[in-house]
Amino acid sequence: MNLLLTHIKELIQVRENAPLKLRGKEMKSLPTIKNAWLYIKHGKIEDFGPMETMPPHEGFKTLDCSGKMVLPTWCDSHSHLVYAGNREQEFVDRINGLSYQEIAERGGGIVNSAKKLQETSEEELYSQSAARLEEIMCLGTGAIEIKSGYGLTTDAELKMLQVARKLAKEYPITIKTTFLGAHALPPEFKENKDGYMDVLCNEMLPKVAAENLAEYVDIFCEKGYFSVADMDRLLMEAKKYGLVPKVHVNQFNSIGGIQSAVKHNALSVDHLEVMTDEDIKALKNTNTMPVALPSCSYFLSIPYAPGRKIIDSGLPLALATDYNPGSTPSGNMNFVISTACIKMRLTPEEAINAATLNGAYAMGLSSSHGSITKGKVGNVIITKKIPSYGYLPYAFGSNLIDSVIINGEEIVCSF
Ligand code: NIG
Ligand code: FE
Question: What residues are neighbours of ligand 2 (ion), with CB under 5 Å?
Fold first, then answer.
């Protein structure tokens, strides 16, 4: 629980008074201390400074971090980590020429995962999901949001959220949960969207709220899935239960989802691969965090969210994985950060800010996570010996993490 890191080559994302989020030009700066120490006490960041200021430390558990960087663990604000099985066949179908939308129209996609999940026991779903969670912790993630949305029946949606809750209880990583019953139309409601909307609003939402299974509500607002009117209805209803919106918008089409989300004071709008100037304008001077998911663009070969333009417009930006079996079968935030630099032209400073402090904001955690600040959780990544923090996105694909500390405790990694 108490741990002193010494001789840190560079302590990254050091903020005396951390802002809740960073926007526009603020994202260019990443404060650091070279040749530093960091003390974590009772799982929280107690103090830090340059080596010459290190207090006497008789009897402390210490770790020599010579040549290594230390930074806050990644904050992954968008994932669907609880799912059953995989969708390798659709991966091959896409290689052979089918599009993501064509696969969904043939009954594949989200509905395919829902069928698998409905047939999987809660215990099995837990064990598959726990293995993924253990992997992403070892990849440096210290807080994650997990969505439902592969259940599509009341029982299966509750099962997913219960599994996420159990993971939160069993593992040290902070987990936030989101109700995404409005992810796709289940086959039995194919010709009756309003009927499914009734189930979402009148059956699922009240149960999710009564069992306190989610803090956030999400909807896939997209042509062929749910309309802006559906989103308005669901978010209005969810508000009665105190659920805050975090929504899937603008993945394939710009249909007004951002404007509606902002009106409902959404905490985040996620995907954003297709953005008009009006969409960017709608996000200005709001509390809503734009979230880009570059590994989804990579996997589906679709456009990247215009991260450079979003930041240059003075907006904040967060980065997340979107870990799910269909569009992003990877929970690797290190890859997300590299891809944001390489494909979206973010600088390493911007990408690290987007994956730490702004990611924390996008799941309501920025007063406790996302920076090296006294009183925040003792969650840090210790890198291998690397020349600079810019080397993290630069050397894409290498595992540059030496160890991960969550709440002051080193995570044991078998990966
Ligand atoms: O965020 N786009 C909507 N939902 C998920 C993917 C769902 C799936 O294909 O299973 C996403 O990309
Ligand atoms: Fe998603």
Answer: 322
